[in-house]
Design brief:
With about 350 residues, this protein is α/β, with parallel strands linked by helices. It has 10 helices and 16 strands. The radius of gyration is 19 Å and the shape is globular.
Length: about 350
Amino acid sequence: MSHLLVLSDGDVRRALPVQAAIDCNRRAFLHSADYVVPQRIILSLPIHAGATLFKPCWEQRPDGGGALGIKLVSVRPQNAAHGMPTVPASVVLLDEATGATVAIMNGTYLTAIRTAAGSAIAADLLAAPAASSLVLFGAGLQSEAHAMTVCAVRSVARIAIVNRTPATGGLLADRLHTYFAGHPGGATSTCPAISVVSLADTAAVNDVVSSADIIVTASNSAVPLFDGTKLRAGTCVLAVGSYQPASRELDTAVLRRAGRIIVDSEEALAVGEFALARADGIDRVPHALTLGHALADSAALAVADGDIALYKSVGTALQDIATARAVYEAALQGGLGTKCSL
């Protein structure tokens, strides 16, 4: 009889502190050659204005003890109106030898924190050491997780939250105040000053963009969120929202100016930021490095003809399974979750 461990969102959060998430994702990217990552399946559901993705992965180890599993993640923007996550997810882990299911865990927070961990790793390579100003486009869980991880690798003094609905941005500001009050230490030792800007206020958006050291775009927008000509030299842009060829959060000006470019996987090179810029005559694909390559050989991050840095992520199952394994092992050690028989 096989035994199954079921982990709730709360269990996952308790099992995976921010620094542990960054550390396990850094290891996974450094050893990315050990992972078999088949092409993800995207099932579009226009009737629900969303999609569901199926993302399998296998970590090959000589001793046969690698992680094996699949993440099921959906994009449902309309969930926000019902107080539900707009990116609900689950992860299933299997025993490599027997194929039996050993764990099912809520993947909503896991997805956010592993994405944000990848961004923080990239920011550690791309952002100025003295970067202190962070702008978040979007006020959901992804932006919340990015504030947590970016502030773990840079001493951030100011955070601006840009959102279509300022009230929602205010709720995120409240959550971040609570988080920083309970998590002193790390690169950001005190709570940053946090402001909220309406996306509709173009002048205010231009103002925060032009003074930002690091910008995170974590929205469901299909069109550019800001004017890339307003960025100051040296800005690091972390783009994680778009994942299809016809949508983009960044305009061609951002791609034109991007000298150092990192992607989480080669799949990211097919999304709108690159595809639509190419249609405008700007092809930055040859300049892009995967995060694993950049970590292994930072000298390869030679600056091309550009004055800003860009990290583009679409999510990779490598991160999902590596993070899920870390959660599973910590849960077993800490007695978290619910055990049942199948």
